[in-house]
Write a structure and sequence with these properties.
Layout: H1 7-15, E1 25-27, E2 63-69, E3 74-78, E4 88-90, E5 101-104, H2 107-120, H3 124-134, H4 140-154, E6 170-177, H5 182-193, H6 197-204, E7 209-215, H7 216-228, E8 232-237
Antiparallel strand pairs: 1-2, 2-3, 3-4, 4-5, 6-7, 6-8
Helix pairs in contact: 2-3, 3-4, 5-6
Length: 242
């Protein structure tokens, strides 16, 4: 289902502020790409199957991604919270469940914080004052940001770490070998493609299995999960970086 991009979200992604911290928003969609950026979060990249659920740890119905950090972790809003100014949430991928924490009380406040932090470079003390005034120091996100800034301040200044350009290659995630934990991979295929146990087992016997298609940054969660199950997984780019 297509959702209208709220004005506040449009302004945030069009500003596309990069503060220089890999843990903070680093990649933004173009307004016309907003729906496509939900692939891998709200729906499966190949089957289109919904990944939305209401149970704890699932991607909730109102959540929409507005940015990714330099590691491919999502920053997102809940479309049902417009009256609150759209609080911004963050959750690392690859954990097998989504553990959301509030990154900022609103899109406007996060944008303002990013703009200020961008100008502070490695002034760790000033950065801490900004975060203390606008967000919670108790979150893992802001602890990581401040720790990294303090580490940079304690050592010689280094060039800004470039974004991972390979993350924006479009391609297909392929299982080349299901590994020793065969039944766990079969269960993954059953749930991913909505197959019967017999169909999933037959699919697992294939020499290669196309799991999902999309940008690598959106497929890493599935890649990490399959590798944790012992499967051999390859990402095969379709062409030049988008």
């Amino acid at each position: 289902m297509t959702s209208i991009l709220p004005d506040a979200a449009r302004q945030f992604i069009e500003a596309a502020i990069v503060a220089g911290d890999m843990a903070l928003p680093f990649h933004y969609p173009q307004p016309g790409q907003w729906e496509g950026w939900q692939s891998g979060f709200r729906h499966h990249g190949i089957t289109g199957e919904s990944l939305v659920g209401t149970a704890p740890g699932e991607w909730q119905p109102g959540w929409y991604v507005v940015a990714l950090n330099g590691f491919g972790d999502p920053f997102f809003i809940d479309l049902n919270q417009e009256a609150k100014g759209f609080p911004v949430y963050y959750a690392p991928h690859g954990a097998g469940r989504w553990e959301a924490e509030q990154a900022a009380p609103s899109l406007q406040q996060l944008g303002d914080m990013l703009a200020v932090l961008r100008g502070l470079e490695d002034d760790a003390t000033a950065a801490q004052h900004v975060v203390e005034a606008e967000a919670s120091l108790g979150t893992r996100l802001w602890r990581e940001v401040l720790e990294n800034r303090q580490n940079r301040a304690d050592t010689a200044k280094e060039p800004a770490f470039p974004p991972d350009t390979t993350a924006w290659q479009h391609g297909t995630l392929v299982i080349c070998g299901i590994g020793p934990q065969k039944m766990k991979v079969v269960q993954f295929l059953k749930q991913t493609f909505g197959l019967s146990p017999q169909e999933a087992l037959a699919l697992a016997m294939q020499p290669e299995i196309a799991v999902a298609e999309g940008y690598l940054v959106h497929l890493r969660r599935s890649q990490d999960h399959l590798q944790a199950l012992g499967a051999t997984v390859e990402f095969r780019p379709h062409g030049p970086r988008a």
